[in-house]
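Reviewer 2 asked us to include a model.

Predict the structure of this chain.
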Amino acid sequence: MAHLLDGPGFLGTNAPFASDLSLVLVSLTAVLLTVGWQLARRGLYEAHRWVQTGAVGLNTIVVAAVMVKSFTTHILPGIPSKMLEGDYGVTTLHALVGTIGVLLGVFVVLRANGRVPAALRFVNYKAFMWTAYALYMVGTALGIAVYVLAFVLGI
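Predicted model (structure tokens):
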């Protein structure tokens, strides 16, 4: 399996398979989160909860399986000396925004599914959900920028 993930990608860029797969799955996550938001707007809260739970779970797996290793291997060793070179700055910003988004998203999903202690059960869902959604979308946009910089433009 590791050989497949390190092999050539399938999107016609210079990206390895893992990066192409990550891009596709994170884009799917963004679509699913948007579908879930629309379900909530229509009052279909149970479907909304299931879609959001699945999307956050999928995204968390992709982050843990691909992005953490990539960041710690390729970017972290160059911080802070290379922050203004290549894609180091935008990748670091992506990692920061993405990490906060993932953590908040997981917390919101755990709360929505009754899996947090009573003391952490916030009432104002909208503020937490909108913040998590906004962070996911900004993180996704930054991730697409990182992909383009690294694998399309070769910066």
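Helices lie at 2-6, 17-41, 45-75, 88-112, 125-152. The mean pLDDT is 93. We have added this to the supplementary material.
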